[in-house]
Amino acid sequence: MATENKKYIPALRFPEFQNDGEWKTDTMETIFDIKNGYTPSKSNSSFWDNGTIPWFRMEDIRKNGHILSDSIQHVTPAAVKNAGLFPAYSIIVATTATIGEHALIIVDSLANQRFTFLTKRKSFDNKLDMMYFHYFMFIIDEWCKKNTNAGGLLSVNMDSFKKLTIPYPSSLSEQKKIADCFVSIDKEIDATKRKLELLKEHKKGLMQCLFPVKGKTTPEIRFPEFIGTKEWTPKQLGSIGETFGGLSGKSAEDFGTGKPFVPYKQVFNSSEIDFSECALVQVSENEVQNSLQYGDILVTTSSETPDEVGYTAVVTNKNIPECYLNSFCFIYRLFDDEYIDAKFLIYLFSNDAYRAAVVRIAQGITRFNISKTKFKEIELVILENKNEQIKIAETLSSVDKQIVEYDKKIKALELHKKGLMQQLFPKL
């Protein structure tokens, strides 16, 4: 909301604009023609078959980002005959259900009813740069999340939204300079993300070459010093290891203090356990619980899809504290912890053969689960030469380290961008 006599001046300003004074302000409804998106009737095939006009949904933003030139689904001219198209360089902002997302649409288009269209009025053609406003919209996205109507379907308070004060520099040059700053950061983020995806594809290809495919007992590629050595051996997991449950008999009051335990999320998101990320649980002196050991493979037992069940993380630290496992996972422990290199286990339990085997044993309808009994029936082709195990693990681990570095760089750039937004834009 506009605040009387409030001056809008950002904390950080480019040198050439330091003496330009305070920014101008106008309300959202003064700057924009504000209309709801809509969905043409799904039952009318003439609205959808062979459509060429972009019709945007939240999935488009999640897949392709915040500047969009095309959509996943399209509609025909017949679908927009009465209502008309929203013009290019409009903004769509989610004001119902999934709130706090927007995109700059650079083509004539439609969007579904969860979005509100903001189309710049002609009187602001020489006053407001839409790329500048696109980046300011990230501030408004956060405002939208905090200003919703209570009760019923979650929605933005549109009366307040329309009267929301929008600050902007009087100079289009300053607006464009701010936008260009964020465009350059976004380009670097996008380029780093592309490199990260290529590296992940490279790792996937390496794993497919370094582990035998189904029906084979030797991989496509072996390091020169191991060519002609013993083939890999099919082993049923129950023949070389045992399973143990996670924490049992705990109530909500037992968590928050006490001894460390590995939460479900860490097993799902990580390939090896970082004990600094553990949560805490009360475990008494004489209580019977299964504590973790070096070489343990921790396995998630349940997920919403079969493709995400049975994710694993490995205990690769030999000097581990007394630590336990959450109740939504189980432990797979080798009878002989010297049989397989712990780092190699990370890749053995994430390669295509293992993932395919887990998906086959997953059971459920709305949620999928795997049992410890069925898990032990899984057969994997296992390499018994520990020196070769270590070589494979070192090769793949080096790629993982690069992946981590790219991921860190993306997070640092995104944090830098967020910090700049807080300084280059005045607070609402």
Explain what the structure shows.
This protein is an alpha+beta fold and 428 residues long. It has eleven helices and 24 strands. The strands form eight sheets. It has a five-stranded mixed β-sheet, sandwiched between helices. A four-stranded antiparallel β-sheet has the order 14-21-17-19. It has a three-stranded mixed β-sheet with strand order 5-3-8. A hairpin with a 7-residue loop joins strand 6 and strand 7. The model has no long low-confidence stretch (mean pLDDT 94).
Compact summary:
The chain has helices at 28-31, 58-64, 130-146, 158-162, 172-210, 237-240, 264-269, 342-348, 352-361, 372-376, 386-424, and strands spanning 24-27, 32-36, 53-56, 67-68, 73-75, 90-94, 102-105, 110-111, 115-120, 148-149, 155-156, 165-168, 233-236, 241-245, 255-262, 279-281, 297-300, 302-303, 312-314, 324-325, 329-334, 363-364, 368-369, 379-382. It is an alpha+beta fold and 428 residues long.
